Every structure is written in C-alpha cells, then in structure tokens.
Amino acid sequence: MSTHPYRTIWTLSWPQLIMMVFHLLIGLVDVWVAGRINKDVQASMGMISQSLVFFLIVGMAVANGSVAAISQSIGAGLNLRAKRYVGLSVQLGIVLGAIILLIGYPIRNSILYVLQVPPELDHIMRYFIRVFLFLLPSYYMLIVSNAIFRAHKRVMLPLYCMIIVTTTNAIGDLGFGLGMWGLPNFGYQGLAWSTFFSILAGTIFDIIALFKTGMFSFKRLPPFKWVKKAGPYLIKVAWPSGLMQIVWHSGYMVLYSITATLPNDNITALAGMAAGIRIESILFLPAFAFSFTSTILIGHYLGEGRPDEAKKFGLRILGIAIVSLSLLSLGMWQIVEPVTSLIAPDSLVRAEAVNYLFFNMIAIPFTVTSMILAGTFNGAGATVYNLIIFSFTIWALRLPLAYVLGHEIMNSPTGIWIAMLASQIVQSSTMFYAFLTRNWQSYSMMNGKRRKIDAERIQKDISKLSGNIR
Predict the structure, then answer these.
(1) How many angstroms separate the CA atoms of 21 and 469, rounded?
(2) Burial classification of residue 264, based on how many CB atoms lie within 10 Å of its CB (0-12 exposed, 13-18 middle, 19 or more buried)
(3) Which residues contact 4 (CB under 8 A, 6 or more apart)?
(4) What is the mean pLDDT of residues 243-253?
(5) How far apart are CA 78 and CA 70, in angstroms?
C-alpha cells in the first residue's frame, strides 16, 4: 500500500465521499420538504435528527470497536479472528438495538422535556420520536454492517447501501410528505415513515451482502470461550467511543436547549441552526470520508506492526483534508446566500442560517483536524483520547461559553455560534498535540510486539524447513 500512498488514500476515500453525498441528500431532502410544510416542522426535524443520533450512540460505539478489531486482525493476517469479530459485532448490533428501544420508548416524553421543546412543536416531536424509536434495531444493524465492510476495505458496499436509503427516503418524503405524484399527503407523518422504511431497505441490502461476500456466516459465530478472551478488546475500544458520543451528542442537545430558550426569536434560531447544519454538512462530506479512510489504514498498518507508517498516513490524510476543505469552504461562502435560500425559504430563518454558517465556516480547518484525528485514534483503538479531549472542550468550554454569550452578554444566537468556534480551536489544537507527542499506537491489539514475535517464529520455522531440505 505504501508504494503509492496517495493513490491508496484516494481509492478508499472516493466511494466514501460519494456515500456521504447521498447521506447529505437525505438530510437536505428532509429539511427542504419540512420547510415546505412549515417552519415548525423544519425546526422539529432538526431537533429530532439530533435526538435520533443520541439513541444510536451505542451502535456507533460498537461500530468503532468493530473497525479497529477487524482491520487490525486482517492486517495481522489473523483471518479467523477477523471473522469471529464480525460475528460478535453483528450479534451485539442486533441485541443492543433492541435493548435501547426497550429502554428509550418508556422515557420518550422525558427526553422531549430535557430538550425544552417549545409548546408549538410538542405534537410533532411526540410523533417523530415514537416512529424513530422503532427504527433503532434496523438502524443498529445498518451501522454495524457498514463498519464491517469498511474494515475489510469493501467501501463500495456502504455506498450501494446509502444509494438505496437515499432513493427510498426521497421518494417517501416527496410523495407522502408533500403529496407529489398523486400519493396521499401525510405531511410530517410521511417524513417520519419515509425515514423508517428507507433505513429498513438499506439494512436488508447489508444483511444480504454480509452473507453473499462470506464475511458473515452462522458457522463463524464466536464460541463463548473465545468471546471471553477477545471480546474485552472490542469493549475497551467501544466504551470510550460510546461515552464520547454521549458527551458529544448530549452536548448538542444542551446546545439546542440553550438555543431554544433564547430570550428572543428562539424558533427562528432553531430553524436557522437546523438549516445551517445541513448546509455545513456539505463541507463535512470529504472530512468524514477521510476520517473513515484514516481509521481503516491506521488499523491495517498497526495490525501489520508498522506504527511509523500508520503515523505517516495519519499526517498525509490530515494535510489533504485541511487544504482541500479550506478551499472548498472559501468557494462555498461565495454562494452561501442562494444555497441557503433553497433550504430555508423563510427570510428570517435564512438570515440566521447565514449567520450560523459565517462562524462555522471559519472553524472548518479546526473542525476537520478534530474529525480526522478522531478517526486516526479510532483505528488505533485509542478512543480514550477522543473521550477526554471532547469532554473537556464541550462541557467545560463550549456550553458554558454559549450560555454566557448567548443569554447574558449578547442576548442572541450569535453568542452561541462564537462559542462553537472557540471550542473547535481548542479541541483541534489539543488533539494535534496528542497525535504528535503521545504513544497512541500502543492501544492496538498487536502494538508491534505480537507481530514481531510472530515474524521471528515464522523465520525460525522457515530456517528449520530449509535445513531439513538440505
């Protein structure tokens, strides 16, 4: 792989970039259709999307642990171990998705209370959260299976999955959300069920692909004795990742709450934030693709016992991402007004979305650094770095500063957007320092030692065999 490093990066990144484009289209169509219904639905869509991600945290944690364990096992040539980790990951995805549904459904109204949902949005949010909770088992399976494909470098399969999800969602949103093509117009209810059936369609595709490619079979389900020995590594990687996701997304929920309780124009601020996040996510597409690529390559190189090569690839991917996305951000700012008007037809919402984008586009180099290095640490299994750094910058810096600036000093959402920029600068600087100075490679399963022992043993076996032949 290292003969043409940039070709390797591109080969793994472009399918994931296109996959993220389709992922973006899902959000854009949701927000666009919601905006055509009314701004209450648009504001609700932004809030429920963040809430859904919160429920997916455990699945994303298992996915991160799976990529690290599977990719390192493949890099080390331990194919049976890789297959057993696949089986363990699938089992965990199914069981945990069902558990989170059973826990979340009875407390769904309490979650809306924590979000400080404005009274005029209450009936919409109650319907959204009921439908989305029943989506969880399917969504967990989709997240874990796509992570398994990435760990095997089969990055085209998640792309195909996302094409199916996006197409199904768009047809459902436009048809049942707006009543196009003579289909019944269910309004916001149509948006909720479009999401449900689109994810279900993608999950069915992934399950078929797992069996067809031979990555998963019931014969390779790990025995309990093996799980007791190998499972702790997956848990070691997954729990900081899951806790970090809780820190991150609960932080966003609190940020939504801070925005929702602003003394002036809180509904406009919420809708503008929802629209701004959707547009901002265009800039995150390559960042997510490069982050996924970093996770894959770091895992494989550390599995091979090559920590120096892993660090070099981390720096290469980071450099490509910062330069390309900074240029993309500058270009996008030139057309920010017409692009925003497509998502937010209401003039007040559009103005606030542009205000949000101004500060968050300035933050792009810092945000991208955090995303790429988080992917690097995930591939190494060093998820504890992400947990510590994200926890500090969100809860000790971003949220207190957002409240003080937004509610006490500026009395406007601009203070909240400034707090987001400041926290990204501190966060990315801290992560880069850890990448350069800390031994994060030692968190891998192999950490160079096992690979060296195996290589020496193989060399001795070859020498003995050669001696016997002579």
Answers:
(1) 58
(2) exposed
(3) none
(4) 83
(5) 9
- Distance of alpha carbon 337 from alpha carbon 275, whole angstroms: 12
pTM of the model: 0.80
Query: What is the distance between the alpha carbons of residues 211 and 145, in angstroms, rounded to a whole number?
Result: 11
Burial of 307 (C-beta count, 10 Å sphere; 0-12/13-18/19+): buried
- The answer to whether 353 touches 344, Cβ cutoff 8 Å, is yes
What DSSP string describes 192-210?
HHHHHHHHHHHHHHHHHHH
Contact indicator for 292, 375 with CB cutoff of 8 Å: yes
The token pair at 264 is 């002036």
Distance from C-alpha of 274 to C-alpha of 68, rounded to nearest angstrom: 32
At a CB cut-off of 8 Å and minimum separation 6, what does 382 contact? 440, 441, 443
Give the pLDDT score at 460.
47
Residue-wise pLDDT for 162-206, tens only, equals 999 999 999 998 888 888 887 878 787 888 888 889 999 999 999
Q: Amino acid letter at 348?
A: L
Close Cβ partners of 317 (under 8 Å, ≥ 6 residues apart): 9, 290, 293, 294, 297, 372, 376
Token code pair at residue 176: 């049942």
Q: Name the phi and psi angles at 259, rounded to 5.
A: -70, -40
Ramachandran bin of 183, using left for φ above 0, alpha for ψ from -120 to 50, beta for the remaining angles: beta
What the block records as the tokens of 150 is 């990435």
What pLDDT shows up at residue 211? 92
Amino acid at 386: N
Q: How far is residue 35 from each of residues 31, 71, 102, 195, 354, measured CA to CA in Å?
A: 6, 42, 32, 16, 16
Query: How far apart (Å, rounded) are the C-alpha atoms in residues 434 and 69?
Result: 22
**Nearest alpha carbon to residue 421 among 366, 377, 369:** 366
Conformation bin of residue 187: beta by default, left when phi > 0, alpha when psi is -120 to 50: left
Please say whether the beta carbons of 423 and 398 come within 8 A: yes
Q: How far apart are the first and last CA of the chain?
A: 35
- The answer to whether 185 and 173 are in contact (CB under 8 A) is no
Phi then psi for residue 38, to 5 deg, are -175, 170
pLDDT tens digits, 381-414: 999 999 999 999 999 999 999 999 888 888 888 8
Using DSSP, how many helices (H) and how many strands (E) does the chain show?
20, 0
Q: What are the backbone dihedrals phi and psi of residue 263, each rounded to the nearest 5 degrees, phi first? A: -65, -25
Taking the C-alpha atoms of 441, 447, 449 and 453 in order, what is their torsion angle to the nearest 10 degrees? -130
Contact 293, 17 (CB under 8 A): no
Structure tokens at 154: 């089969």
